[in-house]
What we know:
By secondary structure, the protein is an alpha/beta fold. The chain has eleven helices and seven strands.
Amino acid sequence: MTIILAVTNQKGGVGKTTTSINLAASLAAAGRRILLIDLDPQGNATMGSGVEKNLLTSTIYHVLLGTEGISDVRISATQGKYDLIPANRDLAGAEVEMVDLSHRESRLKTALEPIKNEYDYILIDCPPALNLLTLNGLCGADAVMIPMQCEYYALEGLSDLVNTIKKVRAKFNPSLRIEGLLRTMFDPRNILAQQVSDQLQQHFGKKVYRTVIPRNVRLAEAPSFGKPAMYYDKLSKGAQAYIALAEEILQASN
Ligand code: ATP
Ligand code: MG
């Protein structure tokens, strides 16, 4: 069965896109059929998959607006054995243009229907906002994956997100669950990070992935080469951490 995961956190720069790209590549390398959906007008998941966003004439924007079918927009990631629904800044206009459309929160869900069975996992890289795009991600998903940095304000931001998830459950998607919380850019020498990490485990228990993503410069460098880290420096701590995360997820689903 297909599992659709929205990679989301309204806080910017916490590692959503890095997680989406590297988890897509790691799950694909483990033999799973993977689709990555870029749902952010920044188009970082598109560029990080080796696709030049500014040359694209068909993107997720056209899918959401209903002018293109999803299979016409789908491409292969240049590096990494996964498929991609790309985005670029066109998507920034979608929110305003979707306001008058019917079922505006479930347009992604509906668009995915014809192709979802072709995949084991579909990952949705959400933008850093609780907006209509993210709402489409949450309505279209079975579960959310929340990357977060272990900082002082992280837990506060998390409670906003958990409240949003509850509202989406009540109104649109009753079966939406939290798949897991992922500690990103982790520095074990930082005492505050340790404390926040401990609190996270107290509150969320088994929902916190065992795998921790360390701060690792290879993860930050890889996108400028349009590659997931495992195709840039496979032995780097960052690439290995995402390979371990994929293994943890696959083991849990067995
Ligand atoms: P946005 O909210 O803008 O979409 P995001 O949550 O998708 O951001 P990323 O783009 O994945 O976050 O990461 C933010 C920055 O931090 C990027 O420059 C990325 O390369 C870098 N980065 C992400 N994870 C790590 C890591 N584990 N170690 C070092 N750098 C990282
Ligand atoms: Mg991002």
